[in-house]
Automatic annotation (TrEMBL):
InterPro entries: Uma2 (IPR008538). Residues 226-271 form a coiled coil. It comes from the Bacteria. PANTHER family: SLR1095 PROTEIN, SLR1612 PROTEIN. This is Uma2 family endonuclease. The keyword Nuclease applies. Residues 1-11 have a biased composition (Basic and acidic residues). It comes from Roseofilum halophilum BLCC-M91. GO terms for molecular function: endonuclease activity. Residues 1-22 are annotated as: Disordered.
Length: 278
């Protein structure tokens, strides 16, 4: 990151997450972005809880990552649609985070994800800060992630193209991650894979960005797990009911067989034949 090393006195003089804007004033680009963020968070929650039994991690959804002090302040921030930072407290002094401030925390996100609404050029812009000419203009988003914020993984998800690109930071440069045999992209420090899943979430049937475990099993949301458990319970109840019906049917057949035997015995006796001697 490009913030110069400062003394403790200077660091405490810089604004913190409560003093910086928590929005850049732009609208969410489409109705799919909000449920997409929730889907990513909900389905990865149990995995992160296993990775962090102390609960020391933070997830940002369309929240600012401040990397440079500017005027206005939001020009010195990027707002990934989704990001995860390991080994940081989920709250600061008991207060919910309003943004993630690098000059306070220093730990970069492990992964940052951008949802493309345009043609993808903004998310792939590599214009460095040194080439910015106009006042208030920001350097390229790709450059900021690669050179300043430096998440180990950067993903660009395009719902219209049903695709995702995943980059891994290697020796200060992002390199494309190759898809595996399942068409997924391994995020090894998390023990998961990222990929595209076509299906219905909420009331939208779309190519969603989702997580799988390292064996290729889809990570489910809480609602999906609850529905599966309900289906299992209903299936078990149905199987139990069918078993009861089979037992009742077997008992009925046994009773009918006994009745037939008794009628035959009575018929033999009426003809002077002892059925017990046969």
């Amino acid at each position: 990151m490009t913030i110069a090393k400062s003394s403790e006195r200077e660091i405490t003089a810089l604004p913190d997450h409560t003093q910086l804007p928590d929005s850049d004033g732009t609208f969410v680009k489409n109705f799919q972005e909000h449920p997409q963020s929730i889907l990513l968070t909900d389905s990865i929650q149990s995995t992160l809880d296993r990775l962090h039994p102390d609960k020391q991690y933070a997830i940002g959804q369309d929240c600012g990552i401040y990397w440079r002090l500017t005027e206005p302040p939001e020009k010195g921030a990027e707002c990934p649609d989704w990001f995860y930072v390991p080994n940081v407290p989920p709250t600061l002094e008991g207060r919910a985070r309003r943004s993630y401030v690098l000059w306070q925390e220093f730990i970069p996100p492990l992964i940052a994800i951008e949802f493309v609404s345009g043609d993808g050029s903004e998310e792939r812009d590599t214009t460095p800060l040194s080439k910015v000419q106009k006042k208030g203009q920001k350097p390229g988003k790709f450059w900021v992630y690669e050179q300043i914020i430096r998440p180990a993984f950067y993903a660009i998800y395009e719902v219209q193209k049903k695709s995702v690109e995943v980059y891994h930071l290697i020796e200060d440069r992002y390199e494309l991650v190759a898809e595996n045999e399942r068409g997924h992209y391994p995020i090894q420090p998390m023990g998961v894979e990222l990929g595209i899943w076509q299906g219905q979430y909420g009331n939208l049937d779309l190519p969603w960005l989702r997580w799988w475990d390292s064996e290729g099993n889809l990570l489910l949301t809480g609602d999906e797990r609850a529905r599966i458990e309900q289906q299992r319970a209903e299936s078990a109840e149905l199987e139990l009911q069918q078993e009861r019906e089979r037992a009742e049917s077997a008992e009925l057949e046994l009773q009918q067989e006994r009745q037939r035997a008794e009628r035959l015995a009575e018929l033999l006796r009426s003809q002077g034949i002892n059925p017990e001697e046969l």
